[in-house]
Amino acid sequence: MTERKPLTRAKIGVLMGGQSSEREVSLKTGEAVYRSLVRSGYDAVAIDVGPALTQSMQEQRVEMAFLALHGPGGEDGSIQGFLETLGIPYTGSGVRASAIGMHKVATKTQLAAEGIPVPKGAVVLRRTAPTLGRILSAYKLKLPVVVKPASQGSTIGVTIVRQPSQWKEALSLAHQYDAEAMVEAFVPGHEVTVSLLGGADGTVTGLPAVEIVAPDGFYDFSAKYEKGRTQYLCPAPLSAAMTRQIKQVAIKTYQVLGCNGAARVDFRITPKGKPFVLEINTVPGMTETSLLPMAAGKAGLSYDALTERILQSAIERAGSGSFRAVR
Question: What is the pTM for the complete model shown?
Answer without folding.
Answer: 0.91
